[in-house]
Write a structure and sequence with these properties.
It contains 14 helices and 13 strands.
Length: 357
């Protein structure tokens, strides 16, 4: 009979569900799933202690498998693999998995009534999310703020939740994305899915009072997104260029050339764009919400209840003082160095170890 210590070091297979990345390579949750997988694979090649404990496999749900991914038919063929770990990133967790289950829960606002999504859709989804959470043996959130939100809604899960921050290095993504033509300068960049939660229109309305300023909006339409795009086109016309997604080189160029990168979100799980843009030396301006204050306290933050006056004043001050703007970008670049995909991967390794203990 094998001793407990021998069992503890047996090599385990970890299946990482990268469906969110294949379906949304520009989204924060998609990019975080892919960045985590790449970093874990690299650690397995370079760190013998990791390779001795784990083997990592990328999988995708559904009928079409992406490059280098396995089509596992909603994981059914894996139900008998008792020693394996299934790690999902988009609030999905199958009921029949025989091994251990780790769920990355990236934002908790989906669990309560809100203005960010259709109420009928939320009423159908919320019970499914609660089931996924209940099926998980471990839950990881990208910030302590999300962990606290989750504990308030479902206090019985508090002991199973831990926070692991995401990385900031740009990814050389194999999934095709659009490339933007050069924007008319000067411009502000607003990056993220276009829906009420992201508050895109608020930033444009606030800063359009600067008559020479243009805007680049990068993001696919989410809930009511097409309606928001229609309002932007009708009210601001050629001053706003809308692009659904960007390749890595174009994204870095956008951050470098923008007067500022503005994230006016009403709610977030992490806000990956904030640290990605900061890593490029961009002047990042953030709404004053708990996740942003947690991950990038060095950034200038503006309230969402003053008609955009503080946001306008911040950008005006940076534009009027190029030396201050450059120094601010340098401060944020340095602050972003603490976010790496390797640190994310090691955080997840600790979570895997705890699941096996």
């Amino acid at each position: 009979m094998m001793s407990p210590s021998a069992v503890a070091v047996r090599r385990a297979r970890v299946y990482l569900d990268l469906t969110p990345y294949v379906r949304g390579p520009s989204t924060g949750i998609g990019r975080s799933a892919y960045g985590t997988y790449l970093a874990l694979e690299r650690l397995a090649r370079e760190d013998a202690s990791v390779a001795a404990r784990y083997e990592f496999r990328a999988v995708q749900r559904g009928s079409e498998a992406g490059a280098a991914m396995e089509n596992l038919g909603w994981w059914r063929s894996l139900r008998g693999e008792r020693g394996a770990i299934l790690h999902t990133f988009d609030h999905k967790m199958p009921p029949f998995w025989a091994g251990r289950r780790l769920l990355t829960f990236h934002d908790a606002w989906t669990l309560w009534p809100n203005e960010y999504q259709d109420e009928k859709f939320r009423a159908r989804q919320a019970p499914k999310l609660r089931k996924a959470l209940a099926r998980a043996h471990g839950i990881v959130t990208p910030t302590r703020a999300v962990a606290a939100d989750l504990a308030r809604v479902l206090p019985q899960l508090a002991a199973f939740v831990e926070a692991v921050a995401w990385g900031r290095e740009n990814l050389d993504a194999p999934v095709a994305t659009e490339e933007a033509s050069p924007a008319a300068k000067p411009f502000v960049a607003i990056v993220g899915i276009v829906e009420p939660r992201k508050n895109t229109l608020y930033a444009i309305e606030s800063l359009a009072r600067l008559p020479d300023l243009n805007f680049v909006v990068v993001g696919a339409p989410g809930f009511r997104g097409e309606e928001i795009f229609a309002q932007i086109r009708a009210r601001f016309g050629a001053r706003v260029r809308c692009v659904r997604s960007l390749g890595e080189a174009a994204r870095r160029r956008l951050y470098a050339e923008a007067e500022a990168v503005v994230l006016p979100s009403k709610d977030e799980g992490f806000g990956l764009v904030s640290v990605e843009a900061a890593a490029e030396g961009a002047r990042v301006l953030l709404s004053d919400i708990p996740p942003f204050r947690e991950i990038l306290p060095e950034a200038m933050a503006f309230p969402l209840d003053d008609g955009g006056n503080r946001l306008l004043a911040m950008l005006t001050a940076l534009r009027n003082d190029p030396d201050r703007a450059k120094a601010y970008g340098s401060v944020l670049r340095e602050a972003s160095r603490r976010f790496t995909w390797e640190a994310t991967a090691r955080g997840y390794l600790s979570a895997y170890d705890r699941l096996r203990a």
